[in-house]
Magnesium transporter MgtE (Desulfosoma caldarium), 906 residues
Amino acid sequence: MSLQGSPDGLLHEGAITEPWEVVQQALDSVHPADAAVLLAQYKPQDIAHIVEILGPHQVLAAFEFLPFEVQKETLPHLSRDTVVRLISLMRPDERADLVEELDEDFQDQLLSLLIKAERQNLLKLLTYPEESAGAYMTTDYASLKATQTVREALDELRLQAPKKETIYYAYVVDASRHLIGILSLRDLIMARPESTVERIMSRQVISVPVDMDIELVAKEMRHYDFLAMPVVDDENRLVGIITYDDIFDVITEEATEDMYLLASLDTDERISSPIMRSVKLRSPWLFVNLGTALIASYTVSLFSETIAHFVVLASLMPLVAGLGGNAGTQSLTVVVRALALGEIEDRGKWMVVLRQMTVGLFNGALCGALLAMITLAWHHNPWLALIMWLAMIFNMIVAGCLGALVPIILRKLKLDPALGSSIFVTAATDTGGFFFFLGLATLFMDRILTHGV
Amino acid sequence: MSLQGSPDGLLHEGAITEPWEVVQQALDSVHPADAAVLLAQYKPQDIAHIVEILGPHQVLAAFEFLPFEVQKETLPHLSRDTVVRLISLMRPDERADLVEELDEDFQDQLLSLLIKAERQNLLKLLTYPEESAGAYMTTDYASLKATQTVREALDELRLQAPKKETIYYAYVVDASRHLIGILSLRDLIMARPESTVERIMSRQVISVPVDMDIELVAKEMRHYDFLAMPVVDDENRLVGIITYDDIFDVITEEATEDMYLLASLDTDERISSPIMRSVKLRSPWLFVNLGTALIASYTVSLFSETIAHFVVLASLMPLVAGLGGNAGTQSLTVVVRALALGEIEDRGKWMVVLRQMTVGLFNGALCGALLAMITLAWHHNPWLALIMWLAMIFNMIVAGCLGALVPIILRKLKLDPALGSSIFVTAATDTGGFFFFLGLATLFMDRILTHGV
């Protein structure tokens, strides 16, 4: 993938056996993201050792690419001085994310060591709710004044460049930091040097409020293809920017979250979670499912007499329930994903429910017909085949209806549309499948029995 | 969201009643992405009308933001001249994506109208396989020569700027277009004007081959936080770049795809698909599921005699199957997502299977115990409760095992790990659930019956 040879061989898992110059060279010769992968193979105390010897400035770029867990575990092994220098050097949003992960004692200790301006900025960033634009933004944005000439603006950006996350978009603010315009570096270098920022800036500024849900911010950035999105407070004062690389992560994490919720998984679980943690995170969902499964089980018990008369029903009933569950999950997934991507408008939601029911009707008729034929061939009983067909149609309509309705209702209740929805939908299709099939069988029992088995 | 008022009111659905100046003003006053949303409300012939009157150059930005379907439907309503001008103006990757959607006759017609250089470029882009880096890249990248001074390089970029997708990363190539270095515009404006490109460029160039799967390219760009990724041919010659905005879409689409495959949905289905298309796309999966459900059904039929003896089993057996299905989906989803995000290394995959089985064992014991107690309270039969507990444990181990194993095997077979995996896993947990529960019940029938109902 990368054009230069990877120096993996230089750093071995868990032990530093190489001279420092070799380690340093290995870290220097690759992209910081790859250096972080190399670093992450060491124990936290060894990483701390490397940070102490090479100096925070030297390892900063790689350190910022380390997972928070590793960053957090490394800090206690560093000297006070190094911690302060390292934290001070970090970008404000990375710094806030890390500090947020620390326990309160360590947080307080650290805050007391920072200089006042840094402390205030950090405290401010820590106040934004977890999934808001504020929590993801960086305060290191490039800003310009409207009255500057293009030449002055370029000089200004040259000065700001080393400290800013991006200088490719520059934001034009007035004396009270109100956001009045936006300018790209491309616009700037293409303009005549004696022109002014005011003349070439775009006044059609699109921005997001600091408390906006980051998922919606991601949607906006995808819509506009922005490299960075300005974040403003409720008086339209610029407070930060969110950059495209944060959005890469947001889109990925939101998708994971939806997938997990659709599968009744806690969003905190990871493939690397310890076994007992996975057990603990999954069992509440299984208990909920147990509750809904008991309803289906109780439904079957209502028809014990029917089953006792004609035990073949017990082997056929899972077909209706199972296919209904699959159809319900199909409708559910299409609707959950469309809600997440903002593809369902408020006024169109009844139409969505109706369409899913119609798809259910047709697929129920189709699969039901095939299943009826199989039943006929297997048990030579046309009445049994008929009720199989009817039960499939009824249950697939229920599947389409609830597959669409459950996420729409959850969204209406301001909950995540995927939250536990598959459990409710399959509970309905299981119960519905058993009820329709066994209910019809009870109704037509005489006719079924006259055709014998 | 946006700071300026939205002029939605000016354009009404499906009919142009406003004077052209008003329409033009409405389109001009918003971001092209929003102008595209306004345009998309019209019928294709009306959009064509707007393009003809305002001119391709004027509407280009908004047109590029329109969904391909709308672009495609608009073209036949345009004059030949306008089509050629519009297509020529489009960015190469957008153009190729659009032309790919057209039917062959129209494609040929269009190709014959383009100038030779454009035609060759377009034909080249059309040859890359659908999900490869080549299919997503643009050929409008900024390039520099190593020997240029910084001042010359900046002048060069100023010249290239209007035609290039981004000038924030510039690629340094030799006479045969071999990629030898990379330079950001930030580096350039911070460097002394009399320095040379050679001196300040980074030689640690990370690039991707033109035939690399776009999903892997997205993973690389997320890893490095790149704004653009250079794409090279097999002789390391630069052929294009992929920009961050394409990656927004790739990450989103890949997530949708995985979610769809996990739910046994065809990836071509959309919430807006016509009903009969949804029926057609979903039914094959339902037929597959029907086949696997028949295995479970057949398993139950093997135990008809047991059920006839003790009909309560028919109402309890769905509990074991249902909970197993849920647990299997949990394991499956964790593993599928981890595979997609590259979190499972090849040597670690047996460990993953083992861990999922262990989680299954514990959750089976836990849920099984609760279910056993409920069974005891409901049916006052300790032997029934015991086999319920054992069947739950066995089935949950199967769930964990296959939930992990199926996607790992599919990946090994170079298939998508999510492809139909939920059908196989639930087939196994249904069949397993029925088999363990009814099998144990058959073994212990004497003891169960002595405790009566």
Observations:
- The CA atoms of residues 158 and 310 of chain B lie 85 Å apart.
- The longest strand of chain B covers residues 166-173.
- The radius of gyration of chain B is 30 Å.
- Chain B touches chain A through 118 residues (CB under 8 Å).
